[in-house]
Amino acid sequence: MSGRIPTLPDLGDVRGKRVLVRTDFNVPMDGGAITDDFRIRAALPTIQWLLERGASVVTASHLGRPKGTPEPKYSMEPVRVRLAELAPGVELLENLRFDPGEEANDPAFVARLVDGIDAYVDDAFGACHRAHASIVGPPKTLPSAMGLLLQREVEVLMSLRESPRHPFVAVLGGSKISDKLGVVEALMQVVDSLVVGGAMCFTFLAAKGYGIGDSLFEPDQVDTCRRLLADAASAGKAIYLPEDIVGVDARGAVATFGRSLPAGAKGFDIGPGSAAAFSDVIMDARTVFWNGPMGMFEDPRFEAGTRTVAQAMADTKAFTVVGGGDSAAALAQFRLDDEVDHVSTGGGASLELLELGDLPGLEALRKAPNA
Ligand code: 3PG
Ligand code: MG
């Protein structure tokens, strides 16, 4: 990353100005109700900063993935209600993705967004990896800045790339190694060890020749995993894989297996021995980055591995960072979200920033007229 990204004071005097704040209010919803308002609360410090200095604040976000046309189930109305409780008097535009111009980065849509606006603030870390109109468009013409949330996200995640305290451990889970290959390769450059759980561990276990029964895995990634294991070994870095697995046997009964699963069995969580071993690695680290659950934690039969890792994240003295998405949801489910140093509001964005060291949204801010 090169060049300075303007921060809020770089906007100058905002009194009486209309400031457009791009937020990531893409909150989880269930039947029209917000199930977690974390992303709304995370934007409040920036909104307050602007309000206290006499600005009027217009927020804008996407919600879900509507395809360029209004869909009632993606209406911002529930967010507007919650925002009005948390920050009265703040405007919120309708879902940006109701217009095809948002994802297409259409200059005409940008022009409509900035009409009557004096300055732009990007606080939508979770969407900064998208080169969409509301992210990259306004800084072309308006004095712009990153908000306080975006600033903190960038500081924390870039510090993992550039100056982590060692031992630095990355704990990875989730289902697909193919989704995370880029970030795994980037992390391998800076970490001392990698801990792998979640369904992606079966692709690694298959690469090592263990039986994985009928577990989910990616056959076309077995060679990649074999290469990652070999690269790690020659760089003197450890890749920790589960030594036991909890799942169901061929008749569907819950069972704990060793590292090799019998035919017909399916793994859904790391076993207790693996969870204890992974915890030890986390406890001995000085920096830990965690992305992706260890198993199917939504099902109480398969939550123990993820819960144990989450608890170790809370207990360790290491600097602990949790990538957004499912691992953040798991922490919240176990009520441990206040016990780690940083929970990122971005899933894909945090991985892309770790991988590439830059994001389209940051690049756009660096080229703003006031930068
Ligand atoms: C997210 O939830 O990761 C962000 O809001 C980005 O959403 P998107 O993946 O639909 O672009
Ligand atoms: Mg701690």
Quickly give the structural class: alpha/beta
Number of helices: 15
Reported for the largest beta sheet, the result is: 6 strands, parallel
The ligands found in this model are: 3-phosphoglyceric acid, magnesium ion
The count of strands amounts to 16
Tell me the β content.
Answer: 15-25%
Shape: elongated
Average pLDDT confidence is 96
* N-to-C span: 15 Å
Low-confidence stretches: none
Subunit organisation of the chains: single chain
Strand order in the sheet with the most strands: 10-9-8-14-15-16
Based on CA atoms alone, the radius of gyration comes out at: 22 Å
Helix content: 25-40%
How would you sum up this structure, described in words?
- The structure is a single chain.
- The protein has 371 residues and is an alpha/beta fold.
- It has 15 helices and 16 strands.
- The strands form four sheets. Strands 10-9-8-14-15-16 form a six-stranded parallel beta sheet, sandwiched between helices. The chain has a five-stranded parallel beta sheet with strand order 5-4-1-6-7, with helices on both faces.
- The chain starts with 17 loop residues before the first strand and ends in a 5-residue tail after the last helix.
- The model has no long low-confidence stretch (mean pLDDT 96).
- Magnesium ion binds next to loops.
- 3-phosphoglyceric acid binds at residues 24, 26, 65, 126-127, 130, 347-348.
